[in-house]
Amino acid sequence: MFDALLLTQEDKRTFAQVSQITEADLPEGEVLVEVDYSSLNYKDGLAVTGTGKVIRQFPMVPGIDFAGVVRESTDARYQVGDQVILTGWGVGENHWGGMAQKARVKADWLVPMPQDCDAAKAMMIGTAGLTAMLCVQALQQAGVTPQSGDILVTGASGGVGSVAVTLLANAGYRVVACSGRVEQNAPLLKELGAAEVIDRSELEQDAKPLEAQRWAGVVDTVGNKILAKALAQMQYGGAAAICGLAGGFALPTTVMPFILRGVSLLGIDSVSCPFEKRKAAWEAVIKALPAHFYQQACQQISLAEVPDFANKIIQGQVTGRVLVKL
Q1: Taking the mean position of all CA atoms in its chain, how far away is CA 297?
Q2: InterPro entries, from UniProt (predicted)?
């Protein structure tokens, strides 16, 4: 028997409770992993609280990422004792996830632990950090350099945003962080490297088709009006890497930024990202994140604390990364 956070549904209400389950309860997969750490992401918050229709099959163990040690494997790529990471692939949504002391998954979903990394460090980075790295790489590949101008990061106090701020600042970019709670979050965001912190209300008004050019690049985790406003303010030839929809999935914009300013809109998917690209991003983010990120932008909680923190994260009351110790 081992501990797992089990989600059940009754009368369309979702209930989360730490329960005891067995290996026989786990779904099929080639690799059994003893989970050391998971993390709490915004999507996990939606799943645990039942706020979003993230989960359609119950019971479910949430947790869209985890890191741990292989205990059984029928796949030659992974041996007993190997340290591994899992992010994405619908785990914690369609397949039991990381908020349990053991998980059984497909070998194709795993990534070997990068050099100079361990389970705790991997989950301090987690899905959010991997996504942030993919965003930064996309901007760089689009030709956005530190000399190009300011980079806007929306939802900057969240998991993806806080890592993106750190990565960009550490790479020499001038970062403008956008947050909904400036007084509370500005000190940490500036410690992580933001040159300026602005209130999201500056970007929430309806956007004109084109506005004064302001951003060489954007990492957007919010969508909707905030992304539309940012696109209208893009510099000529700028690029926006988009990876989230915390503000909604609509995009009330026009084609004007794209056809008159040559703006690029770069969609970032970390869920089904191919193995080689995923592995390279993991190796890159381990090398790129400075040591102070792990002390400043991460907090650790227990499995029993997840439901409370899930409510907080969807209400925008959590700053940085939340590590779940199994």
Answers
A1: 13
A2: Acrylyl-CoA_reductase_AcuI, ADH-like_C, ADH-like_N, ER, GroES-like_sf, NAD(P)-bd_dom_sf, Zn-ADH-like_protein
Give 16-35 pLDDT, tens digit per residue: 999 999 999 999 999 999 99
Q: How far apart are the C-alpha atoms of 251 and 255, rounded to whole Å?
A: 11
Task: State how far the alpha carbon of 107 is from the alpha carbons of 30, 70, 111, 273, in Å.
Answer: 6, 10, 9, 15
Rounded alpha-carbon distances, angstroms, from residue 207 to 76, 181, 196: 53, 22, 22
Please name which of 165, 177, 160, 152 lies closest in space to residue 263, comparing C-alpha atoms: 152
**Of the candidates 298, 314, 315, 247, the residue with the CA atom closest to the CA atom of residue 37:** 298
Average pLDDT over all residues of the chain: 95
Whole-angstrom distance, CA of residue 186 vs CA of residue 259: 35
- What distance in Å separates the CA atoms of residue 135 and residue 220, rounded to the nearest whole number? 9
Q: How far apart are CA 128 and CA 42, in angstroms?
A: 9
Judged by DSSP in three states, 260 sits in: helix
Report yes or no: 165 and 175 within 8 Å, Cβ to Cβ: yes
pLDDT band at 56 (very low <50, low <70, confident <90, very high): confident
Q: Could you tell me if 210 and 233 are in contact, meaning their C-beta atoms sit under 8 angstroms apart?
A: no
Backbone φ/ψ region at 266: left (φ over 0), alpha (ψ -120 to 50), beta: beta
What's this model's pTM, rounded to 2 decimal places? 0.91
With tokens 């915390």, the residue in question is: 246
What is the predicted pLDDT for the residue at 316? 84
Q: What are phi and psi of 312, to 5 degrees?
A: -65, -40
Q: Which helix (H) or strand (E) holds 183?
A: helix 182-192
Q: Which of 161, 157, 112, 155 is nearest to 286 (CA)?
A: 112
For 298, the 3-state DSSP assignment is strand
Residue 163 · residue 135 · CB < 8 Å = no
pLDDT digits (tens, 9 = 90+) for 119-167: 999 999 999 999 999 999 999 999 999 999 999 999 999 889 999 999 9
